[in-house]
Amino acid sequence: MSKQPKTPYIIRQAAKEDAAQLSEVRLQIDGETEFMDRERGEAFLSKADFEQIIEKDNNQDTNLFLVAEAEGKVIGFARCAGNSLKRTSHKVDFGICVLKAHWGQGIGKCLLQEAIEWSDENNIKKIALQVIETNHQAIKLYKRHGFQVEGRLRFDKWLSDNNYYDTLLMGRITKVSNNNT
Question: Record's Gene3D superfamilies (predicted)?
Fold first, then answer.
């Protein structure tokens, strides 16, 4: 099998104008892989839903919404979602997805690196994520970028092969001084 040529792409902050494409891309990705939590059409987010998310993220210091764009089309995205609660304002939850046609081109890696750089620049101490145990490429990528497995949710996902799979809880902690470490 020959490797697909690398598509030139850019990583940038999401804009309201991306909302319609984001809705379509998310729907497509949910149908392309069982690595996501949803099946195609479940928990559907419309253009209006994405417009609200993008507006909120662009106006909140603890959130980041990135898109990967190639030839004017969104081909993937990543999001860091934090909050302003004092006890948890130091961390964000991270999620990422890339259209299957563009896997293996380093897009996920670039989205992750941008999110890490942003978190380091914005005094975020921890990035947390969840990944299904069968997504070996993603797990390797996360580990190469300083993430560690912090836990396991057993029998967390039921997939089309009628088997249950575990979800790994992973986190990347920035070097901090802490009286408890």
Answer: 3.40.630.30
Query: Percent helix, strand, coil in the chain (nearest 5)?
Result: 30, 30, 40
CA 43 centroid distance within chain: 16
Instruction: Round to whole Å and give the CA distance between 38 and 43.
Output: 7
What domains, with CATH codes, occur in the chain? 10-173 (3.40.630.30)
DSSP 126-181: EEEEEEETT-HHHHHHHHHTT-EEEEEEEEEEE-TTS-EEEEEEEEEE-----TT-
Q: Residue 44 CA to chain centroid, in angstroms? A: 17
CA 111, 116, 121 angle in degrees (round to 5)?
A: 125
| The overall pTM is greater than 0.85 | yes
Burial of 155 (0-12, 13-18, 19+ CB in 10 A): exposed
| SS3 label, residue 49 | helix
> Residue 95: exposed, middle, or buried by beta-carbon count in 10 A (0-12, 13-18, 19+)?
middle
Which two tokens mark 6?
């690398």
